[in-house]
Structures are given as structure tokens and as C-alpha cells.
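Data availability (excerpt). The following record was deposited with the supplementary files.
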Amino acid sequence: MTTISDIRPSPIAGRWYEGDPKKLADKIDRLLAGASLAKLEGEIVGVIAPHAGHIYSGETAGYAFSAVKGKHFSLVAIFSPLHNYHTAPVLTTAHGAYQTPLGEIPVAGEILERVDSKLREEGIELSRIAYDQEHSLEIELPFLQRALQGDFKLLPFMVRSNEPKILKTLAEAISDAIGNEGCLLVGSTDLSHFHSEEHAQELDEVTLAQIGDFSPEGVLMAELTGRGAACGAGAVAAVMWAAKRMGATHVIVLHHSTSGKTTGDFDSVVGYGAAAILK
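Predicted structure:
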């Protein structure tokens, strides 16, 4: 019988981002400081950020998380894709905390149970997974650890479904379970994958326009029709529907880039976008 550790160890530290705590903190701080943001009108409800290795998408991620720099949230709900196959439409962790080189982040177990209960009432399985290798959720954690003021608890969701009914139900379950707790929503997604720089710009423009229009339906439709692309389309749509229920009124796109800037290869790039959701 395998015993599940209460702490999820990082499978990507030292590969996708710096494994040394000081180097990681310094790197994140530079990325946050390098983001030049105009004043955002309204209260931050959520952010959308990319999830490639920090060397590729860190600049753009810095824009997303600089929008919440110095702010305190007692709870952070992250919605990411799950890149490996699984039968469940939505997954969460079986561990009690996530570990990064910057320390441990406890999972908000009681709230997670409330979300699970509400989803089960609607016939939706929230599957718990141990020792997952998913990078798209974890990659955001060091940014949160450096940007936010004080400690926070985590609600981790890995979303495989792009079905609007399931995503809306998830959004409702989360917003109801959170109640009046101060919560930041984070949607983790990259944009187009492995197109030329020119074509990537076209695809990303469509998806970012739907994000800027605060249209979860539009994000899903862009992915479905191929007019745009986002590997975390379902995660982003769920975040947007949850944000709407929490009073959010508008989205501001903060930054866009591609991997070509880092690799010098403009024949096959990955797109990255950052946005802030406000009320």
C-alpha cells in the first residue's frame, strides 16, 4: 500500500524554474519589477497568466502578478489545464499542501470539500490526484509567493473539460463555497502553440480579444473553431464565470509575447498572454 505524503513535492523546480530559493526569489522579483503597468481602475478579482518555463513566459507572467503585488488574499484559487489524459472533467490535489523552493502552501481543505460536495450534487466528479506532474498550476506558485503580502491558502483545480455547463457549475460551486473570504482567482493558460510568429500573432489576437471582452463563451468558441488557441481555455472560462459571480465587470489585457523572443526561432512559437479581471 502506497502512503500519500501530505506535501506535494515539486516535480519541476530546477527545470521549469530556479530550484535555488534565493535565485528563484531574485528572478521573480526582477520579473515583477520589470512589468510596467498603467493604473488599473477597479478592484482585482483575478488574473490570467501563462505557464511555460519562466525563461520563456516569465516576462508576461510578471505583468499578471505585478497587478496584485503587495496585496493580501487569504485564499487563491488556481484553474489550470491538465495536460495528461484523465477521465474526470475536473481534478484537484490529494495532498494537503504544495511545496516550492520558497516554502509550503497549504491547501484550503474545508473549502475544497464544500466545492466537492456542491459538484457531486450536480453529478460532476472532482477527482483527487496524487504526485501529479502537472506544471501549469505549480508554475504560478512562486509568483504568488513573491507578489502577495502575507500567507494564503490554495484551491487548486486542474480542468480538462471545455463544456460550458460543467465550467459554469464549477464556477458557481467555487463562488458559493468561498463566500465572503478574500479570494484571488488565477487562470493559467498559454495561447497558440507551434505556429509561425505571424500566424501566432493572428491566433493570439483573437483569443486575447475574447478575454478582453470578458467573454468565456468567446474564449471557448475561439478554441473550438480554431480561430484562436488556448490550452487552458476551459480553465480561463471557469475563472471568468466565477469572477462574474464575484462581481467582476471588466478585463484588461496587460501583455502579450511569444517564445520567439527567447529562442530566436520565429518559425515555431508559443504565445503567452496576461490579463487582469476587475470590479
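Summary of structural features: Residues 7-278 form a domain with the Protocatechuate 4,5-dioxygenase; Chain B fold (CATH 3.40.830.10).
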